[in-house]
Design brief:
- The protein has 9 helices and 14 strands.
- The protein has a 5-stranded mixed sheet with strand order 1-12-2-6-5, with helices on one face.
- The longest helix is centred in the N-terminal third of the chain and has 22 residues.
- About 40% of the residues are buried.
- The N terminus and C terminus are likely disordered.
């Protein structure tokens, strides 16, 4: 079972139940590994990072305050069209989150990024070569899912959302989903409905086609405890169930998250939850700008496996080989100020000249 992420992002979530195509990690490995600085015995799987912020939190307020300086004139104009301040604030938080997170990943400043919508509305970066990403927001929460290579989709919904469960299910869901939903006690049906909805939404967003994909052309399979078992497709929908990784969990006490990753033939990705804290994002941005002449963080490798915020990021989105890359030794580094440069084709963090 995948438990709700705890308040302390350093804790590791429980492993998924057998048959669940999910790998969920929160923050750092167990304390004994962090304390000894031991290397992993096996190379880690590729990771997808889910950055999130609760819009009414202190971090949400900080991001909202920074957003205006990063937004384009078009974004500011869209912001001003919202009638209510709450909607304007949520929009600022969303733009600040995606701009700061993606700036970290591509090694630029947030205001440099430019986006455009694909034919079915999925946003993509046009100003920089960057990772795959997807956004979702709902009342009280904004998330940004990022993976280095694999297409991703994410959807978040409030658990208290009131919908016509049976009516919408009969109209849009696959027959097997409707049958499983209606077989449950009535009190459990609203949550099962949201489980299906978030996973289906995440899948069509990862495909980049939105509702051009009929929702009854694929079915998400859940067990009796609402844990994800997999996905099936009708003959009309030509897709490979084994190419997809679906993950679902509660984020905080009031929201449900569905994630879809097209991993293809790759091993399952580790999904790492990243609470968006402005000071950590700004330190990552400062580090990326320091290495800007080397194409940002794309040429950065990692030495130790300690899971400081920078270590988590470099492990997932830096280069794994050290041939021609910067190799940063993070032994004992739990903050960005504690980086200890080594001379293995070397980097002196803090100097003007950086060699690889």
């Amino acid at each position: 079972m995948i438990s709700r992420p705890p308040d302390d992002p350093a804790l590791t979530a429980q492993p998924p139940s057998p048959g669940t195509s999910a790998a969920l990690v929160v923050g750092r490995p167990p304390d004994d590994a962090a304390r000894t600085g031991q290397e992993r015995e096996e190379p880690p799987n590729e990771e997808a990072h889910l950055w999130y912020v609760f819009t009414e939190s202190e971090e949400g307020r900080k991001l909202a305050e920074r957003a205006w300086d990063w937004m384009t004139p078009d974004e500011r104009a869209r912001h001003d069209r919202y009638c209510f301040e709450k909607n304007r604030r949520d929009y600022r938080v969303t733009r600040a989150l995606v701009r700061s997170v993606l700036a970290v990943h591509v090694g630029c400043t947030p205001e440099e990024l430019r986006f455009e919508a694909e034919s079915h509305g999925k946003p993509r970066l046009v100003s920089h070569a960057g990772p795959q990403f997807n956004l979702s927001n709902t009342e009280g929460l904004v998330v940004c899912l990022v993976a280095k290579h694999h297409p991703v989709g994410v959807d978040v919904e409030p658990l208290a959302r009131q919908v016509d469960v049976r009516g919408i299910a009969h109209r849009f869901f696959a027959p097997s989903e409707v049958q499983a939903l209606l077989a449950l006690p009535e009190a459990r049906q609203p949550r099962r409905f949201l489980c299906y909805w978030t996973l289906k939404e995440a899948y069509i967003k990862a495909c980049g086609l939105g509702l051009a994909i009929p929702l009854d052309h694929f079915a998400c399979e859940l067990d009796e405890q609402d844990q994800v078992l997999g996905i099936r497709f009708t003959p009309e929908r030509q897709d490979d169930p084994t190419a997809w990784q679906l993950v679902q969990f509660e984020l905080g006490p009031a929201h449900l998250v569905g994630v879809a990753i097209r991993r293809g033939c790759s091993p399952e990705l580790r999904l790492v939850l990243r609470p968006a804290k402005l000071f950590e994002l700004e330190e990552l941005l400062d580090f990326g700008n320091h290495l800007g002449s080397l194409n940002g963080l794309s040429n950065v490798g990692i030495g130790s496996k300690l899971e400081s915020p920078l270590a988590i990021f470099l492990r997932a989105f830096g280069r794994d080989d050290h041939n021609g890359s910067i190799f940063v030794d993070l032994i004992g580094a739990n903050s960005f100020d504690e980086l200890e440069p080594i001379h293995n084709g070397h980097v002196d963090v803090g100097d003007d000249d950086v060699e690889a």
